[in-house]
Amino acid sequence: MARTIVSAGTTLAMLLGMCAAAAAQDNLFKDFTYGSPQKAYTAAKGFYDCTEYVGAAAMCKDDVDFNGEKFSLALFFSDAKLTTVSLVSRFDQDLYASALGALRQSLTLVAMSDGKTQLDLFELKWRSPDQEDYAARLSSYERAGAKSGDFTYTFLEGVDVRSNYPSMSAMLSASVRSIRAAELLLTGQGEDAGVVINFSRQGGRR
Question: In sequence order, what are the residues at sequence separation of 6 or more whose Cβ sits closer than 8 angstroms to the Cβ of residue 91?
Answer without folding.
Answer: 186, 188, 193, 194, 195
